[in-house]
């Protein structure tokens, strides 16, 4: 929340750690301080003799973020009258427009309201009286809850959630293992408890450390994950369960831009694996897309696939 406060003060008070005549000059100064684009510190853009460009009552702000998870905190700081994340030095009455709905409890204009999704995986599990656990650390908690549930904030019946705090470091190359050990400990305990019909877990290391562009850190992150996945696999096998290992995009597998040789910090569009661990004899189908994952899970569990799911199971059980 401290970063949110600095950004809020920058925009409402025109107060920041640094000042530059132009945005380009501000970026160049940040690079000279060894800050990359993701971590540029609060910089006021104000040429000599110019007035402050702080926000005032009646201004219109259109927030162009389409992802909800990283937009909620500062949106609430601008919009919520009862915001208590930090003491706001200046409260501005804005015409605030969210590009998409960041959260149902944020009461402001939405440019593109959410589509209503019926019978998502979590909802379908609840309708079939199944129990489920969603678990991750802070960086990916929204992905296994809000996003995986089709933009629904509240848990479904029979759904439990465990949040593991991500380490408080400036960048994750400083702690590439992140909180994977604690996450794995909780996950293994949940598997061995036999309490849940299904568990959705997200390990953020490959993505978050991959974003730093530091090869040595990415190697350590993957080594940590290898150990964690080994523990999870053994736990699943010990209870006669089934395990799917996959991802929704690449990152850490490409740490250098092949054209420039510079650090590559973005996602890749390379294919991702889909690994099955279990007692069933399965044959994989060629191809596959993200919308096939939920039908695949339901098929392996022997459950009916709702008609709203347009994907197909990616394994044939022989």
Automatic annotation (TrEMBL):
Single Gene Ontology BP annotation: glucose catabolic process
Gene3D superfamilies: Alkaline Phosphatase, subunit A, BPG-independent phosphoglycerate mutase, domain B
Cofactors that this protein relies on: Mn(2+)
Record bears the keyword Isomerase: yes
GO cellular component terms attached to this protein's record: cytosol
SUPFAM superfamilies in the record: 2,3-Bisphosphoglycerate-independent phosphoglycerate mutase, substrate-binding domain (SSF64158), Alkaline phosphatase-like (SSF53649)
EC number: 5.4.2.12
Name the record gives this protein: 2,3-bisphosphoglycerate-independent phosphoglycerate mutase
């Amino acid at each position: 929340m401290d970063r949110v406060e600095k950004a809020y003060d920058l925009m409402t008070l025109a107060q920041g750690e640094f000042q530059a005549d132009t945005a380009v000059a501000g970026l160049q100064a940040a690079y000279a301080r060894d800050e990359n684009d993701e971590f540029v510190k609060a910089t006021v853009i104000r040429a000599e003799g110019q007035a402050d460009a702080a926000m005032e009552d009646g201004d219109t702000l259109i927030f162009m973020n389409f992802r909800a998870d990283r937009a909620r905190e500062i949106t609430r700081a601008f919009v919520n009258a009862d915001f208590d994340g930090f003491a706001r030095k200046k409260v501005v009455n804005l015409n605030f427009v969210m590009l998409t709905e960041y959260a149902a409890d944020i009461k402001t204009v939405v440019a593109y309201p959410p589509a209503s999704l019926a019978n998502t995986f979590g909802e379908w599990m609840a309708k079939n009286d199944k129990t489920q656990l969603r678990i991750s650390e802070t960086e990916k908690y929204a992905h296994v809850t809000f996003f995986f549930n089709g933009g629904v904030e509240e848990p479904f019946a029979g759904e439990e959630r465990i949040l593991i705090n991500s380490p408080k470091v400036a960048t994750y190359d400083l702690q590439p293992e992140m909180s994977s050990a604690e996450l794995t400990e909780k996950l293994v305990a949940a598997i061995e408890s036999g309490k849940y019909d299904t568990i959705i877990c997200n390990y953020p290391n490959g993505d978050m450390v991959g974003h730093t562009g530091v090869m040595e850190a990415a190697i350590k992150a993957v080594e940590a994950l290898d150990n964690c996945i080994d523990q999870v696999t053994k736990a699943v096998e010990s209870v006669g369960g089934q395990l799917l290992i996959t991802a929704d995009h690449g990152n850490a597998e490409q740490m250098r831009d092949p054209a420039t040789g510079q650090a590559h910090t973005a996602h890749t569009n390379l294919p991702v694996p889909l690994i099955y661990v279990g007692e069933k004899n399965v044959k994989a189908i060629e191809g596959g897309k993200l919308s096939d994952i939920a039908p695949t899970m339901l098929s392996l569990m022997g459950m009916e696939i709702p008609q709203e799911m347009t994907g197909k199971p990616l394994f044939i059980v022989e």
